[in-house]
Specification:
266 residues, alpha+beta, six-stranded antiparallel β-sheet, globular
């Protein structure tokens, strides 16, 4: 999948990475894909959908396209074809947006050409650590959490039917667990020819943990349990394994992927 995790400099700190994926207890195929750094401080999680191996194809295509685009543009700050760069956003956020849009287009075009893969798609969540910032981009309901000062905060907002109902205040807190369509996402790569990508910037601090995960993890573990597991150990690879084991212990109804970025003093 990816080379052994490396550490990268970040201002007066360093970032080290780990990742793991698991088929879970109910699925026949793992349609999740992920990336931990080889040559750049970029991490990715993609959760494919479509069945008959199409979800696996879509998630792998998304990861490979984003990696390829970032590799091609490392030394070329003008390469955003075929999308116009937003002059209001810093360059690294534009790279995340363009990479995701390019992945969306390739998945959509592949699905249009192949009856077997028609309807395939994938979520995508990415985090790129550069200079003083981490740039986060996402489409769908795969999440990015930040753990800081013994608290957990979700940096992304799910593009899901459940979240739409919550935002419109059509569901009470006690109704969320029984919502019948909580696995329905309203935005994903490959659903349409064009896609809107959500991006945000955060300023990391030494001691921070950033967790990217598919909903096979976040759907099985409440935020409080994710926090408890993340704080229990120091090694990011052990934390990934413990999170996946806990998700499986809670049912493991979906594929489970966790990727961690740990900010440590430089």
């Amino acid at each position: 999948m990816a080379p052994l995790p490396k550490t990268f400099p970040l201002r007066n700190a360093r970032v080290r990475f780990a990742g793991e994926t698991n088929i879970g207890r109910k699925r026949q195929l793992n349609e999740d894909s992920y990336y931990v750094p080889g040559d750049m401080s970029l991490i990715i999680v993609a959760d494919g959908m479509g069945g008959h191996a199409s979800g696996e194809v879509a998630s792998r295509m998304a990861v490979e396209t984003v990696i390829g685009y970032f590799t091609e543009t490392q030394d070329d700050c003008e390469q955003t074809w075929p999308y116009k760069m937003d002059g209001h956003d810093r360059y690294d956020l534009n790279r995340l947006v363009t990479a995701a849009k390019l992945a969306n287009l390739r998945i959509w075009q592949t699905a249009q050409r192949s009856e077997r893969q028609h309807g395939m798609g994938t979520t995508l969540v990415t985090a790129y650590f550069v200079d003083d910032f981490v740039c986060v981009g996402h489409v769908g309901d795969s999440r990015c959490y930040r753990i800081r000062d013994n608290m957990i905060h979700q940096l992304t907002e799910d593009h899901s039917l459940l979240n739409d109902y919550v935002r419109m205040k059509k569901l009470r807190t006690d109704e969320i667990g029984n919502f019948q369509h909580k696995n329905v996402i309203v935005r994903a790569l490959g659903m349409k020819e064009q896609v809107q990508v959500e991006v945000t910037r955060d300023v990391p601090r030494a001691g921070d943990l950033y967790l990217l995960c598919s909903d096979g993890l976040s759907g099985m573990l409440p935020d409080e349990q994710i926090l408890e597991i993340a704080l229990a150990k120091q090694d990011p690879q052990e934390i990934c394994s413990d999170l996946i084991n806990a998700a499986n212990a809670n049912g493991g109804v979906d594929n489970i992927t966790a990727v961690l970025a740990q900010v440590v003093p430089g």
